[in-house]
Amino acid sequence: MLLLALPLAVAVWAFGGFAAKRERNNADQELVRHLNSGASVYARLLRDARRNAERLAGSRRVGRAFAQSDEHTLRAIEQAHPWIMLLHGAAGRLQGREVEARIDVIGRGRTIGRVVVVPPFDSRLVRTIANEARLPDGRLGFLLDHRLVREDGVGPVGSRPKAGKPADVRMQGLEYRAVAVPLGEQRDAPALITVRKRSEIAAAANDVRWRVIGIGLGLIGAVLVTAYAVAPAIARSRLSRLQRDQAERVLAHLGDGVFVVDQDGVVRLWNQAAEAITGLRAAEVRGRRAEEAIPSWTTIATFVPVADRPGDGDAPSSSETVPVDVAGRELWLSIVAVALDDDSVYTFRDATHDRRLEDLRSQFVATISHELRTPLASLHGAAMTLREHDLPAQTQDDLLEMIAEQSNRLANLVEEILVAGQLDSGSLRVIADSFDPEELVRGVVTVARSRVGEETRIEVVVPLVVPKVHGDSERTRQVLLNFLDNAIKYSPSGGRIEVGLAAVGDRLRFSVQDHGLGIPVGEQERIFDKFYRLDPDQRRGIGGTGLGLYICRELVRSMHGRIWVESEPGKGTTFAFELPAEPLPVPV
C-alpha cells in the first residue's frame, strides 16, 4: 500500500506547486486588470479635460482675458479647472510637466494665448481614479521618474518596470509586484502603475499550495484506509477510481490540456483545457478508444515517446510538436507523455500560433534572401562591367544609375528590417509635433511621379482648408510612401492613383486609392500582420518583405491614429489612415 501511496504523494506535491504557480499568475493578471481599469478612467478624465480645454479656448471670457492680459481672471479660471493651464507667454511654467494637449487661442488673426492640458499627477488624482475604478486601497499610483505617488504619499522606487509586463520593484525597503503603462511617448514619461506586496502574493500562493496538498494527502489517507478495510482486488479498483477523480478535480483548473490513456488504449481522463484547445467534449472522448476518439492519434502515438517518469534526464521526455486535424481545422500540439502505473498521461498545449509564426519567419528569411540576391547581383554585374570594360559615357551613366537605384533598394530593405526590430523592442522614437499635411502629401507625390511611366497618373485631392496634423511628419511620410509604392506595384497596367486628404471630426484622413488588382476578401484582415505577403510565391512578380504594412500599422498606432483598407478584387484598393488634427482657427 505504501508503494501505491508514494506516486500519489508525488503527484499531489506537484499539483500543489502547479496551484501555487497559478495563484501567482492570477495575482499578476489581477494587477493587469486593475491597471486597465485605472487606465480607462484616466483616459476618460483626459478626454474630458481636452474637451474642457477646447471649450475654454473658444470662450469669450478666456479670449477677453488673454487680449487684456488679465492675469487675475486667467488664474481664477485655472483654479476652477485643475487640469488646465492658461499660458500668456509664460512657457517656463511647463518645465518638468507632462503636457497632453495645447490649443491656441486666436484673436484678430494671431495667437494671443494657449490653453494647455497638464494632468496633476498627485495623490488626489490617484484617489479619484481608484475610487471610480473601484480598486483596492494602495494598489494604484503614478510612477514619476523613480518616485511612486500613491494615495498615502510619495516613495522612491528602485527600478522602473517595463510597460505592460509584471515585474518586481523595491520601494521603501519592501518588495512589490508591479505592472505599469506609460502615459506618454517619451522614455521617462509618467506611468500609471498598480502594485501589490510580494509577501501577500507569496502567502496566498502558499495557502493554495498547502490546501491542495492537504486535500490530496487526505484523499490518499482515505484510499489507504479503504484498501486495508476491503479485499485487495476491490481496494485496487477503488484506489484507481479515486486517483482519477482526484486528478480530474485538480487538472480541471490547469491551463494545459491533459488526458490519460490506459493500457487498453481507452481514454480515461479529458480535462477542461483539453476541451477548450481541441473543441472535443469530454463526454465524446472519455470511455472510447484513443484511435476512435482523438484525431491523428496514430501520429501522436508514433512520434510522442512515453517517459518512465517526469523529469528523467535519460528518458525521451522532451515535448514533441505534432499536427492534429480537428473537424477540418489544423492544430499543432506540443505534447509530453509520462507513464503512470499502467496508464499514460499526456499533457499538451496549443502551439499553432508558434508554428505559424515560425513558418512566417522561415518564409521571411527566404524572401529576404531573394530580395537581397537580385539587387546584389545587379550591383556586382554593373561594377564588374564598369571595371573591366571601356564603355561609352551613356552606358556608364546607365550603369551608375542602376547602381544608385539598386543601392537605394537595398537601403530600403535594411531600413524596413531595422524599423521592425525597433518596433518589437519598443525603442522606436516617434516625435509628436504639428506639421502641414498638404505640403507633405505634395512632396511625397512629387517623388512618386518621378518613378512611374506615362501610363500611371498620380493626382492629389485636398480641400481648400486643411488643418495641421499632430504627429511625426517623417513617420507619416514613410507610411504614405509605402501606400503609394503598393498602389504602383499592384497597378501593373497603370491608371489613375488618387492621394487625398479629408477632415473628419477632430482627425485628418490620408488616403491612397488605386484601380489595380485589389485584395481578396479573406486576405484583407491579414495584410497588416508581420511577415505576411499577399503574393508569397511572387507569381505576379511583385516582391516585398512582408514588413511594410506591419510597420505602417504600428507607426500610425504610435501616433494615436487608426489605419484600415477597403478593397474589391479586380477593381482597386483604398488604403487610409487618420491622425489627430489641430482645430482650425476661429476668428474672435
Short structural summary:
By secondary structure, the chain is an alpha+beta fold. 46% of the residues lie in helices and 23% in strands. Helix 1 runs antiparallel to helix 5.
Task: Give structural notes.
- By secondary structure, the chain is of the alpha+beta class.
- It folds into 5 domains: 31-44 and 121-196, no CATH class; 48-117, no CATH class; 254-350, PAS domain (Beta-Lactamase); 354-425, Helix Hairpins; 433-580, Heat Shock Protein 90.
- The chain is 46% helix and 23% strand.
- The chain contains 15 helices and 22 strands.
- A hairpin with a 2-residue loop joins strand 19 and strand 20.
- The longest helix has 56 residues, at 2-57.
- The radius of gyration is 32 Å and the shape is flat.
Number of helices: 15
CATH class of the largest domain: Alpha Beta
Which topology of the largest domain does CATH recognise? Heat Shock Protein 90
Shape: flat
DSSP helix fraction = 40-55%
Average of the residue pLDDT scores: 81
